[in-house]
Specification:
The chain is mainly alpha-helical. The chain has helices spanning 2-7, 14-25, 30-40, 47-60, 69-80, 86-96, 100-103, 110-120, 123-131, 137-141, 146-151, 153-162, 166-174, 180-183, and strands at 209-210, 214-215. The protein has a two-stranded antiparallel sheet with strand order 1-2.
Length: 220
Amino acid sequence: MARAWIAQGDVENRGSRRAHELSTHWRDRDNDTLALLAAALPHATTPWELSNLLWAVIRRMPGTTHPDHALGDNLIPHALADTPDAESAQLALGLLGNEHLLTDIPDPEPRGLAALATRTHNLDHQQLALRHPHTRPDELAATLTPHTAHILLRDLTNLLHRRPTATLVRRFGDWSIHDTELLARRPVRPVRAPGRAGGRSRRTPRPRYDRGRGPRPNCR
């Protein structure tokens, strides 16, 4: 019914709303759900409806194996728009593994680039994601194999200098990359000063008692 309503022009957005409702209930039908959401995307008339559809697409994307071919085409106009939902549409394109994110979008968002690199495992895509000035290192680094990390070592090293995180440093160890200078850049947690506002306050030790003998005398 939802597909029929959408095909007939989606009057009063009945089909789009129904598509979103079905996306929250259908299980193990990711391909069918995404095909319905792809058909609904061009008919979203309010930011609220568009945002709901885009996040439904993003939630379903990891489980799909054969996404609808129209999905990428219907995402691109929203990814190009100067609206708050453009970043979500670009993330959806990246999760889809759609290279139009690179060819049609002038300045892709870092989350979309990281998602594209994670989906395609393409070295060029991984380099672009790592070199973005606002990249999120932990998301992409979690997916790199030791072999790929050694190939991308220069970019990973530059990223560690720019945006060091404890997770990224741990990944260097997972990749068997042992560099004392690099690992010394691991973020250190600030140590709280003792006292009420900081760590634990020291307590006076309680006197020790022997059963039936009272307090133990101080023999010092």
